[in-house]
Amino acid sequence: MDFKTMLQLPVLEISQVLKTLQGIADEERNKEKPQMPNVSIGTSRGNVSGYFINYDTEKSIVLLGNWYDHKPDLQYVELHAIAS
What we know:
Blueprint: H1 3-7, H2 14-29, E1 38-43, E2 46-56, E3 61-68, E4 71-78
Antiparallel strand pairs: 1-2, 2-3, 3-4
């Protein structure tokens, strides 16, 4: 997503935001050099952040990831835990 596209994003419910991010991630995943959306999610226990990797609507789980020292750092966030 480029800056101009980001500025045009409307205010949506969290479920719609996740569906939009999933669409962006699906497109980027197929590119040679994907630029996954970097997000910060507020939960009841604090904030988690990382690259948006996937959202499973059936399991209601969001997968975020980071890459440190050539190793993946994955975080699974349940939809009911998301506050913002």
